[in-house]
Each structure stands twice: as structure tokens, then as C-alpha cells.
């Protein structure tokens, strides 16, 4: 988490005005495929266009930050997937969900190198990669929040309803994960279809952007954003809030320390997700209200929203590397499993392995309490 805050501070510091500045209309315009040119919202409104400029991130610094996030996310989430796959026994339904969550983060971080290069050199990868990786990014965000909602429901039945998590249920969990990935893929199709490599004369470079007409520009973006807000964030957030509120109340009424420890990592993962993505989603929602005409559209308001979007987007993108850090620092069982994997691979000595595992669960009986245990 400290690394994420450091990167966020660095990006805030590197918000420079002496770099290439973009006219505010660039983000609020659309591409006219008939005339092969950009047209901005202000060009066809009766009001005078905004003459102010929005300061851009230092493109080189932004590229470096994206590559740093990519490296840490790739290493951390790969370790999570490997550790869960290496479990010979004791794998719970939550383990499977968390492994798929790590896969979603891996899918998301796989797109970062391209966006990093795009931030500095423009889109140089062609039309098909533009569609493909835009779809990957969209699907990974949907699958991540859906999996968090599934975990909250799983913990509700395990703790509140005291439903035993039997190995026979693993097939059902895998089916649910399959449905999550399929749904996320379908929801990402509109973005993948509309996104194209387009030359932006104002930037003198190619960009990966939605190819829309003037009649459908704002309506399309508002509809896509409503879909993202409802299905991709706020509705799953409501499910998580209800399930975890009920679960926390149940935990307060029991003295079982094992049950309390079972929720630490999961709650930390959910809070990290909300902390990283909520500011960006709120900002995008405000921008959508401007586009839909619900809020009064002024140059000053556009300036503030556009600047906030740039900052919160970078902060949201760093989320893909946060979960492995939470597992390592909060999840005692995950640390033990990781040490076991390292010991079996000969990377650490038996003395280090035994010493580190002294803080693990003291009794085998408590570990076998499948109805409340969380592997991380």
C-alpha cells in the first residue's frame, strides 16, 4: 500500500504544465468518420468553446509508473496463482475465487505496457490490438468486481448461514467463475467493437479511441458509463455491503478468533478495491452527468473534472498490484503456504521455514474448520 501511495504522490508531483497540453475538447469530442477528423462538443453548441487548457501528465513519467505497476502486479499475482495451484489439500472455495481475482489482475496488468507506450508515443500497435486490449481491460475490471461480490456471498453463507464448504462444492464455484468470465467478456464487447486506431490531428499522433458519429457520441458514452456504474461497480458494491455487514454483525456475536481472522484479508481486499476505484467512478459519474445535461456544463467545471479524471485513473490502475501485498502482510495462512512452496523448491532452508511457521495456526483441528476458514 505504501508503494501505491508513493506512486500516486509521484504522479501528482509530475503533473507538469510545460509538457504537451491537450485542448479540453479532446476528451469531450468525438471522431467524425465521414470527414476523417475530430469534432468537439463545443463546435456544435451555441455557446463559445472553452479556451482553457488542461495540464497533461509528464508522458515519460506516466509511462514509467505504468511499467512499475505492471512489473509488481505481474510478479505478485503470479505468485498468488502459483501458491493456490500448489495447494495439495485444504483449498477452499474462497481460494478459488481469490485465484481468479489474481488472474483478473494479471489480465488487467497485461494491458499496461501498451497504455504506457501510448501515453508517450501514441498508439503504434495497429487497429486489432487496440480493440483486443481495450476489451481485455474492460473484461478484467468487470470480472474483478464480480468476483469480489461472489466472495462476499460465499463468506455470508460460510459464516452467517454456517454452510460447510465441502470439496464437492468446488465444481459449483468453478462454474460460477466461468459464468463471471463469460459475462465480463460479453459486457466488454461494445467497447472492443467501437474502439479503433484513429489519427488525432491536434495531437499529431494515432490514438486508441471510440469511433463515433456526432449523433451517437454523448449518448453512447453515457450508456456505456451507466452500464459500468450499475453492473460494474455500484450494484456489486451494494451486494458486498449487505453481505459483509451481516457477516460482521454475526462475527461480533461470536468469540471465535478463527472466524475473525477469516475476514481480515477479504475485508482488506474489498476496502482496497473501493479505496482505489471509488474516486475514479465518482468522477466518471460526474462527467457523465455533464454529458447528459443533468449538471450545468461550464469551462471551469470541465477543467476540474478532466484533471481529476487524470489523477484518479492512475490511482485506480495501481489497484492490480495491491492484493498480493495485502495477502503477504495480512494473510497468515497465505504466508505459510508461500513459505512451504519456497521450501519445497529449495529456495529457503528448513530452519527458516519452521521458524516462520511458528506463528501459524496452532492446531490442525482449527484449520479443518472449513465453514469459516479463508486460505489467504
UniProtKB/TrEMBL annotation:
UniProt xrefs under Gene3D superfamilies: Rhodopsin 7-helix transmembrane proteins
Annotated transmembrane regions: 60-84, 96-117, 141-159, 171-193, 233-253, 265-286
Keyword Cell membrane: yes
Membrane topology classification: Multi-pass membrane protein
Keywords: Cell membrane, Chemotaxis, Disulfide bond, G-protein coupled receptor, Glycoprotein, Membrane, Phosphoprotein, Receptor, Transducer, Transmembrane, Transmembrane helix
Major site of localization recorded for this protein: membrane
Cellular compartment(s): Cell membrane
Coiled-coil regions listed: none
Family statement drawn from the similarity comment of this UniProt entry: Belongs to the G-protein coupled receptor 1 family.
Subunit comment: Interacts with IL8. Interacts with GNAI2.
Biological role stated in the UniProt entry: Receptor for interleukin-8 which is a powerful neutrophil chemotactic factor. Binding of IL-8 to the receptor causes activation of neutrophils. This response is mediated via a G-protein that activates a phosphatidylinositol-calcium second messenger system. Binds to IL-8 with high affinity. Also binds with high affinity to CXCL3, GRO/MGSA and NAP-2.
Name of the molecule in the record: C-X-C chemokine receptor type 2
Gene source species: Xenoophorus captivus
Lineage: Eukaryota, Metazoa, Chordata, Craniata, Vertebrata
Amino acid at each position: 500500500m505504501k508503494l501505491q501511495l508513493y506512486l500516486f504522490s509521484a504522479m501528482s508531483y509530475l503533473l507538469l504544465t510545460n509538457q504537451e497540453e491537450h485542448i479540453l475538447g479532446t476528451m469531450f469530442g468525438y471522431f467524425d468518420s465521414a470527414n476523417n477528423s475530430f469534432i468537439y462538443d463545443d463546435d456544435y453548441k451555441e455557446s463559445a468553446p472553452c479556451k482553457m487548457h488542461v495540464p497533461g501528465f509528464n508522458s515519460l513519467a506516466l509511462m514509467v509508473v505504468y511499467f512499475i505497476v505492471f512489473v509488481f502486479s505481474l510478479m505478485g499475482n503470479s505468485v498468488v496463482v502459483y501458491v493456490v495451484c500448489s495447494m495439495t489439500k485444504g483449498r477452499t472455495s474462497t481460494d478459488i475465487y481469490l485465484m481468479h481475482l489474481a488472474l483478473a489482475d494479471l489480465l488487467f496488468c497485461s494491458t499496461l505496457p501498451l497504455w504506457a507506450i501510448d501515453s508517450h508515443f501514441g498508439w503504434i500497435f495497429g487497429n486489432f490490438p487496440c480493440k483486443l486490449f481495450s476489451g481485455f481491460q474492460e473484461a478484467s475490471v468487470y470480472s474483478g468486481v464480480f468476483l469480489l461480490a461472489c466472495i462476499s456471498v460465499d463468506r455470508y453463507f460460510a459464516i452467517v448461514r454456517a454452510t460447510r464448504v465441502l470439496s464437492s462444492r468446488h465444481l459449483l464455484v468453478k462454474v460460477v467463475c466461468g459464468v463471471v468470465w463469460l459475462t465480463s467478456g460479453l459486457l466488454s464487447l461494445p467497447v472492443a467493437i467501437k474502439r479503433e486506431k484513429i489519427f488525432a490531428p491536434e495531437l499529431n499522433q494515432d490514438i486508441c479511441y471510440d469511433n463515433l458519429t456526432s449523433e451517437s457520441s454523448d449518448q453512447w458514452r453515457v450508456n456505456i458509463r451507466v452500464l459500468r456504474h450499475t453492473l460494474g461497480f455500484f450494484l456489486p458494491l451494494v451486494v458486498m455491503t449487505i453481505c459483509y455487514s451481516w457477516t460482521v454483525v454475526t462475527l461480533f456475536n461470536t468469540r471465535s478468533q478463527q472466524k475473525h481472522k477469516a475476514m481480515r484479508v477479504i475485508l482488506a481486499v474489498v476496502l482496497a478495491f473501493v479505496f482505489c476505484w471509488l474516486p475514479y467512478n465518482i468522477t466518471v459519474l460526474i462527467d457523465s452527468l455533464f454529458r447528459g445535461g443533468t449538471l450545468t456544463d461550464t469551462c471551469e467545471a470541465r477543467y476540474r473534472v478532466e484533471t481529476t479524471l487524470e489523477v484518479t485513473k492512475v490511482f485506480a490502475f495501481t489497484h492490480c498490484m495491491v492484493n498480493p501485498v495485502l495477502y503477504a502482510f495480512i494473510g497468515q495462512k497465505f504466508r505459510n503456504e508461500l513459505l512451504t512452496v519456497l521450501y519445497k523448491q529449495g529456495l529457503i532452508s528448513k530452519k527458516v521455514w519452521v521458524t516462520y511457521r511458528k506463528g501459524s495456526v496452532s492446531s490442525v483441528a482449527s484449520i479443518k474448520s472449513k465453514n469459516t476458514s479463508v486460505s489467504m
